[in-house]
Write a structure and sequence with these properties.
Oligomer: single chain
InterPro entries: MmgE/PrpD_sf, MmgE/PrpD_sf_1, MmgE_PrpD, MmgE_PrpD_N
Pfam families: MmgE_PrpD_N (PF03972)
Family: Belongs to the PrpD family.
Protein name: 2-methylcitrate dehydratase
Distance between the termini: 55 Å
Strand content: 5-15%
CATH superfamily of the largest domain: 2-methylcitrate dehydratase PrpD
CATH topology of the largest domain: 2-methylcitrate dehydratase PrpD
Order of helices and strands: HHHEEHEHHHHHHHHEHEHHHHHEEEHHH
CATH architecture of the largest domain: Orthogonal Bundle
GO molecular function: lyase activity
Number of domains: 2
């Protein structure tokens, strides 16, 4: 009988260890941890909706909620911490899954590592697995599932969380396969919330992270899963994509973590390169917001039509502002950057929304996903076209991530921000070091130093 897709992934997960990681992968893993944790610590003040989300994920245990310091079950800690990372709409991104991996996988792996007292090496191996498994499952199909209305993070990052959770628990091959199969039963989450500006996206990342923990724990407890969960006639691909892809993978690490990009600004991943492209063009051409009479943004057709991207304000919620390319571009045109305040305070009526109507969003079949060009017409009659670089321009190195997170740390609501950021750098480096691999995670990584002042 042929080896199935989940069985192939399971063998890869069960046999992965930290000693196999290349220096490049290890450095990028540090960058991913540093970025995602920094984003979590800079989450906005908790509102009633987020309090409600926390209240229904409050089972006690021995994994830590990063915001409050509460000791929770691994599943509920994973949910809360994943929601914390995603609260700014500023995640790491992988183009192959059309979504985000770190905000889902990192909370799941750390929660189980704390609960089971795993080693730092187990955490590193688990996260390396997570960053490979999601793109493998999503390869060549994420665009199709997106066209059917499914959010890439909700589908494919669930497998990342399950893979990381299975590895940090040191499950055997059969158990890893079961964890992935069970995880497929938790996949879901649509993009309609972006079209209407509603808040379901707040639970999608948390659900995916929690699902990975639950799937791995159930597999550890003996639950079996369908071995044809992905490619079976009634399996994942048939349900969410419509057809079954042929896999061409030799079972070796593909180091997809190296292709992870970071959002330099809060807001939708689709709009990150356009914003950067506009800011770079402004600086090169030396024009200001008052000099611009009209702009046209061109995107890959899937992204030009992605729910919420072409909407104009005023909006009914910050959710819509986070998705809107015209709003994000107009804000960047005026301020040369974007901050959380632009979304939390600027989604309602304002003259900025009127000015954003000078920006059109169009599709261009010749563009690759996440690439763009912007035609800028100035009031003096001149025109220029700014063409984005590749998405890899946002695949920041460890050094670049240190600089970016140093700026983000200024938004942490804790005392002594610079010292806290330096401590985070030190702890992440220790977690990923050769010397630290045999140390228990609780001996290497202490989250209490980063607890928010208003954590109650």
């Amino acid at each position: 009988m042929p080896v199935t897709y989940v069985e192939r992934l399971a063998a890869f997960i069960a046999n992965r260890n930290a000693d196999m990681l290349t220096e490049l992968v290890n450095e990028k893993l540090q960058a991913c941890l540093l970025f995602n944790l920094s984003i979590a610590f800079a989450a906005p003040t908790v509102d009633p909706i987020r309090h409600s989300l926390e209240a229904v994920h409050a089972m006690s245990g021995n994994a830590i909620c990063w915001r409050t310091g509460e000791e929770l079950s691994p599943a509920d800690a994973a949910f809360r911490n994943a929601a914390l990372i995603s609260a700014r709409g500023q995640n790491d991104t992988h183009a192959e899954i059309n979504g985000h991996i770190g905000c889902v996988a990192i909370p799941a792996v750390i929660a189980l590592a704390q609960s089971g007292n795993a080693t730092a090496g187990d955490v590193c191996a688990a996260l390396a697995c997570a960053y490979d498994v999601a793109p493998l499952v999503a390869r060549s199909v994420a665009i199709k599932s997106g066209q059917r209305g499914f959010r890439g993070t909700s589908l494919f990052a669930t497998f990342a969380a399950a893979a990381g959770a299975a590895r940090v628990l040191k499950l055997n091959v059969a158990q890893c396969a079961a964890a992935l199969s069970i995880a497929s039963q938790f996949c879901g989450g649509t993009t309609q919330c972006w079209a209407e500006g509603t808040q379901e996206w707040l639970i999608q990342v948390g659900n995916a992270s929690r699902a990975g923990v639950v799937a791995a724990l159930l597999a550890q407890g003996g639950m079996r899963g369908a071995i044809n969960a992905l490619e079976g006639p009634n399996g994942f691909y048939r349900a969410f994509v419509g057809d079954i892809p042929d896999w061409h993978w030799d079972g070796q690490a593909i180091d997809e973590i190296l292709n992870v990009t970071f959002k330099p600004f809060p807001g939708c991943a689709i709009n990150q390169l356009p914003v950067k492209t506009l800011i770079d063009c402004k600086r090169q051409m030396c024009f200001g917001d008052s000099d611009v009479s009209r702009m046209t943004l061109a995107l890959h057709p899937l992204y030009a039509r992605y729910p919420g991207v072409d909407r104009y304000g005023p909006f009914e919620s910050a959710t819509s502002a986070i998705m809107s390319a015209p709003f994000m571009l107009q804000t960047a045109l005026e301020n040369d950057t974007l901050t959380m305040d632009d979304f939390s305070q600027g989604f309602g009526p304002s003259s900025r929304h009127d000015r954003s109507r000078q920006i059109d969003v169009v599709s261009d079949d010749a563009l690759e996903p996440f690439h763009c060009w912007i035609d800028i017409q100035l009031r003096n009659g001149s025109r220029t076209r700014a063409i984005s670089g590749p998405p890899s321009n946002l695949a920041y190195s460890l050094i670049e991530s240190r600089s970016l997170t140093g700026k983000i740390a200024q938004e942490w609501r804790i005392a002594e921000r610079d010292q806290a950021h330096a401590l985070l750098l030190k702890q992440v480096a220790a977690l990923c070091s050769v010397e630290g691999r045999r140390r228990r995670i609780r001996d290497v990584f202490d989250m209490s130093a980063f607890r928010q002042i208003d954590a109650g």
